[in-house]
Amino acid sequence: MLGPATYCIWTICTLLEGGVVVCSLTRHSFRRYLTLNLYMAASVMVSVGRYFVLSRYGFDSDQYFYFYYYSDAIMTICMYFALMGLYSIVFEELGAGTYVRTFSMLLLGGTALFTFGVVHQAQDRMVTKYVAEISQNLYFVGLVLTYVLWGAVLKLRETRARVVQFVLSTGVYFSLSAAIYALRNLYPNYSNLASVLMYASQITDTLLPLAWIYAYLRFDDDARFAPARLAVIPR
Amino acid sequence: MMMGLTFNFSLAAMMPGIILVVSLAALLQFFISYCRSLIAASVKQPISADVRDVTGIARTASGEDFERVIQLLRLCPAHPHDRSEIRAIATYFRLLGFLRVSAGKLMPSLVSWTETERGQCAYFAAVALERRIAFSRDMLAEQMHT
């Protein structure tokens, strides 16, 4: 059973996700950051879908369980596409759009194959363990992709403040999510830890739209700063 | 066969542990860079003589100023856009304090780096204070006008 705090965070998160799309429209940046905005719009739809499944079948139902975890996995794959959008923005001056598109298609194919392989292999295993494992792996791949993108931002001396903010906040989101799922897999039998991690996961979900709204409102498309000064290890 | 099974089992057991360690290391790096990007936006903004007088920041801000500026920020009506960024910087400030105390003895260069960063956090808070004061003045002027 979900408590009022969970519903409250869930509502805030959904509103913030919708807020990202509204902010991008009011700042005339919807098409510029199309994949990021589509991801947020899809997140709102998934939230609404989850609410309907929850209210119809209940929290302990198989339907809600499967809907929750599979939609989470699909949203993570959608997030890869949002990341590919950021890759193409960072690499646009190098004219590497075709390479990015090819890579994103390969990534989608690879992820689909990997997921199929895991599903095929996991037929005889505990489903709860398997879904947590696949989410952990998907978030970790997202983290690696974001880390590579951050390296490219530093290497190419990308100075657009909004782009830098999008990349860094996405990195924080993926690393937090991967860490939460890894902890869940390390200690699957601790129910107290599981409930703490559930809240942590929900709060993490609110951080990403919050950071993106901040980036839209605080910075113009022309705002710039030197990313070399932001690196932990000075360059 | 047996060795293969043992290898698979230990790899499966180790995987979440490896992912946890790598994720936490990446989180630390991304979080520090993100906070520095928030600070970088305010570094170029000058602060007025009034705010310098109130906060006691003479030329450059130091880490010691941070708590005082935060206390002053709490006295001002909140600006709608700066609450989350101030919270993020306050977390970053505490993280820097922890780094200075825990790893400072092993790496003396870290102490000076954290002190510079803490000073920039204080400057960021002073810029936020300036913004809040301007926001309050605007609100007051609007109320007087209506």
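qc> The mean pLDDT of chain A is 84.
qc> done
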